Amino acid sequence: MDEDIKSNLKLVVESSMLRKLSKSVEESDTHYEFTIRQQHLSTNISALQELFKTVDLKDNSNLSNDILSSLILLSKELQSKGEWNTEESMNFSKSLNSGFESLYLISIDDILKSVITPFPTQTLFDLCLAKLHSKLTIQEFKHYPSLVEVYCLLIESLANYKVKVTPSAILPISLLLIDDYNKAYKLKGLKCCQTILKAQTQKDFLNGNYHEVIYISLGNALREKDLAVTKLLLECFMEFMRILPATEKVDTMDNIFLKVLEEMATEANFDRKLAYFAFLQKFIPIHGINCVKRKRRLFAIIVENIDMCTNQPIRKVMLDDTLKCLKIWIQYCWSGFKYTSDAKLISIMLKIMYVLEDKERKHIAETERLLEALVHLSGKDNEKQIVLSLTDICNKNNKLKKRFDKLLTNLKPTV
C-alpha cells in the first residue's frame, strides 16, 4: 500500500514539472506546455500536501530518494525565472516547502544544506545531477529551458551544500552551455563553471584527465568577442589554474598565456584590452619566471599599447593598466630582460615619458621608475650608452632636459 502511494506521489511530482517542449526555445517564442504545466500545478500542490502525510520518505529506499530528488528539482524550478513561471509559482514553492517542513522539520530547499538531516544528502544530490544530465544533452537541452535554470540555481548554492563534488558528475552541463554559440547560455555556463571550480581542489583532478576537457571549452570560449563573456572566462581561468595537477600546471598555464596573448594581439576593444591586462596582473605572479618564454609576444603588445597612449584620450583609458602589467613582469621576470632584443621597450617608454603632460604626475613618476629599472637591467655598457645618448639629446632641448632630468640624475651615479 505504501509503495502504491509513493508511486502515485512520484507521478504527481513529475507531472508538476515542465515537460519537454515540442519546439526548442530557438524555434518558437510560445509554448503550450507552459499553460499545461500551470494547470497541473493548480491541482497538484494540494494533492502533494495530502500525499506527504500518508508516506514516510525517511526510509532511504530507492523510491523515496527518487521522490525526494525530484522534489528538490521541482522546488528549484518553481523559483526559477522564466516564462513557464508566474507569481503564483513562487507561492506554490513556499507552500510546498512549508508543508514538507511541518512533517520533517526541514524544508525541501534546506535538505542539501543541512548536516543533521533524516535524508541521505549525498545520494539525493547525485540523483539530482543524474536526472539533469539525462535530459540536458547537446541534442535536447534547448527543449528543457526550466531545467537549465534549475541546474544554475543548484550550482549557485553549491558552497552551502554538505556534499562531495565530483568534476565529471557536475561539470558536463556547464561545459555544454559554455560551448553553445548563444551568449546567454555561454554566460550561464561560465558562471556555473566558476562556482564549481571554486569548490574543487587539486585532489579532485588527480584521477583522469577531466581538466583537459575543461581547458578545451574555456580555450574555445576565448574567441567570443563579448566583454561580459571575456571577464567571466578570465575569472574561470584563474580558478582553473588553481586546481591544475602539479605535473600539468606549467605547460597548461603556458598554453593559457599564449592563447590570451594571441587574443590581445588582435583585440581592438579597449574594455576587453583592460580585462586582459587585469588578468595578466594576476597571472604573471602565479606563472612567475615561466612567463619569460612568451616575452616577445607580451612586449610587442605592451609596446603597441604604450605607443597608442601617445594619444591623450587613449592614454586616459589604457596607460595605467599597461604600466602595471609591465611593472609586475619586471618584478617577477626581470632576469629575462635582454637589451639586445628588448631595446624597443625602452625606446617606447622614453617616447611616452616625453609626451606626458606635466599634470600627469602619477604616470610620469611610474614611467620614470620603470625606465630606471629597464635601463639598469640593460647591462653596464648599454646603461652607460643610454645615459650618454639621452644626456646629449637633453643638452640640445630644454623641454627634454626638464622632463628627463630626474631620471638622468638617478641613473648617472651608477654609470
What does the main sheet amount to?
A: none
Share of β-strand residues:
under 5%
Oligomer: single chain
Q: What's the overall average pLDDT, rounded?
A: 93
| Termini Cα gap | 96 Å
Helix and strand pattern = HHHHHHHHHHHHHHHHHHH
Cα Rg: 29 Å
Structural class: mainly alpha
Number of E-type strands: 0
Q: How much helical structure, as a percent, in the residues?
A: over 70%
What is the overall number of helices?
19
Shape: elongated
- Poorly predicted regions are none
Fold topology:
Elements: H1 2-16, H2 32-52, H3 62-79, H4 87-104, H5 121-135, H6 145-156, H7 167-170, H8 172-179, H9 183-198, H10 210-221, H11 227-243, H12 246-266, H13 270-287, H14 295-308, H15 312-333, H16 339-355, H17 361-376, H18 380-395, H19 398-411
Helix pairs in contact: 1-2, 1-3, 2-4, 3-4, 3-5, 3-6, 8-9, 9-11, 10-11, 11-13, 12-13, 12-14, 13-15, 14-15, 14-16, 15-17, 16-17, 17-19, 18-19
Explain this structure.
With 415 residues, the protein is an all-alpha fold. It has a domain at 249-415. Helices cover 71% and strands 0% of the residues. It contains 19 helices and no strands. The protein has helices at residues 2-16, 32-52, 62-79, 87-104, 121-135, 145-156, 167-170, 172-179, 183-198, 210-221, 227-243, 246-266, 270-287, 295-308, 312-333, 339-355, 361-376, 380-395, 398-411. Helix 2 packs parallel to helix 4, helix 8 (172-179) packs antiparallel against helix 9 and helix 12 (246-266) packs antiparallel against helix 13. The termini are far apart. The model has no long low-confidence stretch (mean pLDDT 93).
